[in-house]
Amino acid sequence: MKRKVTKAIFPVAGLGTRFLPATKSIPKEIMTLVDRPLIQYAIDEARAAGIKEFLFVTSRGKSALEDYFDDAPELETSLRKKGKTQMLEELKSTNMDSGAIAYVRQNRALGLGHAVWCARRLVGNESFAVILTDDVIAAEKPCLQQMMEAHEETGGNVVAAMEVPQDKVSSYGVLDIEEDMGDMVKVRGMVEKPAPGTEPSNLAVIGRYILTPNIMRNLNKKKEGAGGEIQLTDAIAEEITAGEPVYGFRFRGQRYDCGSKAGFLQATVAFGLAREELRGEFSTYLDDLHAQKNGAK
Ligand code: G1P
Prior knowledge:
The protein is built from eleven helices and 13 strands. By secondary structure, it is an alpha/beta fold.
């Protein structure tokens, strides 16, 4: 029987320069959509997909991220005393069991592939998932769970994929399609951030991966790729060259690029409107705002 994938790597070492000055003192993964930090969305998605071990690749200045997952006994006692049971339940649902999260440091920012490689000893000889917290995906069935189901049928490496507008393709890892089966795409090549005009397709890799342990072996070679960084895309592409299967998976759901300001704002509005308790007031406000076409002065 195939072993279930129970480990996920969360590369959270990035500096978050696009969100300066906020990220001077808070990790970008702690930035909130409505009232939940980005990392919480990623963790919830991983849990729903059956992940039991959460491997964080962190860096200097990320201690707020580690603290976030501690129990908060004082807060819990105070909420209990005040009879705020719903809030208490919500708070408790974010607690992680001791030992469920492990942290490794990436000492130097050498790229996404390098960050993933930093967790190699914790992954061992098992297939593993990778979740990029910048990519927030709203979906009826969480994206990673959809991918796990697809992976159970295909095995091999599976990456989340989505068609992106032509003028944005060169910001992504891009798939060269061998066979298009609808939801699943058999891949014959992958390029990280192809120069405009050289893209093999407009099917881009989105930040969810299920990978075989071979990927770590490929990353061991520490080959520099696009932007002089060690790229995860290249390590996956190497598997194709070695004759191993790689699939793109067109997930069902709406993806928000929370690594960009515009994407983060869109997600804030969408997740705000999705909350029943906010919807009425917030949508009236948005309608008014839209009519005036004015922002805050
Ligand atoms: C990373 C990956 C890229 C992928 C993208 C998805 O790029 O390297 O292959 O398409 O995430 O969000 P980054 O956004 O870190 O530049």
